[in-house]
Amino acid sequence: MAFNPLRATAAPVPAPVVDPPGGYLNSLNLFRVVACAAVVGQHAFLWIGASGIAASAFVTLLHFSRTAFFFVSGLVLCYTELRRPLSPGRFWQRRYTQMGVPYVAWTLIYLVFTLLTVGGSWHHTYPLFRHSFTHGYYQLYALIVLFQAYLLFPPLLWLLRRSRRHLLIGAVSVVFALFINSALHFTHSMGFISDFTNWLGTQWPWSRNLLAYQEFFVLGALAAFHLREVHAFVSRWHRQVMAFTGAVAAGMLAWYLVSVWNGTTTGAASDIYQPLAVVWCLVAIAGLYCWSWAWEARHPTPESAGKRRGLTSVAHLAELTAGIYFCHVLFINRIRLVLENTGLRTHLPFAATVGLLFVLTLAVSAAFITLVLRSPLRWVVGGPVRAEQRARWMARADQVAATDEPVLAKGARAPTL
Q1: Which of 98, 220, 236, 325 sits CB 3.0–4.6 Å from 75 for a disulfide?
Q2: Which residues of 279-290 are buried (b: 16+ CB within 10 A; e: fewer)?
């Protein structure tokens, strides 16, 4: 009997999301918003000084934010290329321009900011720029990883189009990730393997190395290939997946606390490069994806319902996420300084200080990017303009055949799990 994604379950299932065939994935809107907020939340802890047990526990859970960004990048890259294929040259030109220009712009902005606020000499301009450009200024390291993914994406897409063993490819990717994270976390327990990974980290930081995050790109690409099956599964099991995510989060916290109580430092216990972190991040991504899908099912994006978007709608907030990611460190630095100079940081409890820093940073960053997106510099400073992307996708959706099957290369076989 064919699998029916709308089959009744113990709890009522919301209507499936109507992402137009070949159209913009509105079901990712909440995913982007929550992942972006988690990034700012984690940085709020780190910039205040998350050295305590409770603060590091939050950081442990919020690590998933960077991996969620890589997962959705892999999904969107593959989804776009399957429906509007480009040659490798055109793909690289488009992607490196789309994200490279904002990257260079913000590298220069943060360079000037650093020279003006840290008190460095202008003679240090070139060394600072060279390091920031090649390694990424603070949060911009994610773009360094993304640029590596762009380089290797065409061969990955070629492999996935021609292979029928997608489940095996995904499993190998995850097993490799667990192996790498074991070598990185247990630095003296795996002999020459740990020695090699430690040496490799001295040549190129693991935080900037695609190998440390490859599983999230690969699984995102696989999800794009099987998007109809993914949504069929999510429509039936989203509640159970979200509940399981909560249980795993509790288990991750318990493991963290047991590790600390047994003498492990908070830094090691909350390490993003440990095998359990891979498991937690994958489960967190699944739970967030289900939540985002269910939200879109109950609250369809206004364009599809014939309404205008409000400034606080999830669709509008999703349009701001790229720009907020670029600019929020600029504002979190200044707001923290204000909290220190006014004495609020001294007199407020730690949790209240972090919460205030988080809310103010998000609010100021969102207001700034809202203004930027209304200017001619919107894609130079604000990153990809999702409103324009959505409009283009919706305009072309009617031209796509009424199927959600991916576009396959000539002679390729349809992939199966």
Answers
A1: 220
A2: bbbbbbbbbbbb
- CB under 8 Å to 32, separation ≥6 — which residues? 72, 318, 321
Provide long-range contacts, Cβ within 8 A and 24+ apart, for 343-350.
345/48, 350/48, 350/52, 350/55
Instruction: Quote the CA–CA distance of 187 and 181 in Å, as a whole number.
Output: 10
Length of the chain: 417
Query: How far, in Å, CA of 355 to CA of 85, rounded?
Result: 44
Using CA atoms, how far apart are residues 329 and 315, in angstroms rounded to an integer? 23
Chunked into runs of 10 residues, the chain (417 residues) has average pLDDT values of: 39 46 80 97 89 88 96 96 92 95 96 82 85 94 97 96 95 96 86 88 94 97 95 95 98 95 92 95 98 92 56 84 95 94 89 95 96 89 72 56 46 38
DSSP string, 284-313: HHHHHHHHHHHHHHHS--HHHHT-PPPTTS
Q: What is the pTM of this model?
A: 0.87
**In Å, what is the CA distance from 416 to each residue of 85, 162, 170, 225, 345?**
20, 11, 12, 9, 55
For residue 413, the 8-state DSSP code is P
Taking CA atoms, 408 is separated from 84, 217, 236, 274, 415, in Å, by: 11, 20, 28, 37, 9
CA–CA separation, 362 and 360 (whole Å): 5
Scanning 63-135, the segments in alpha helix (DSSP H) are: 64-83, 88-117, 125-135
Amino acid found at 399 = Q
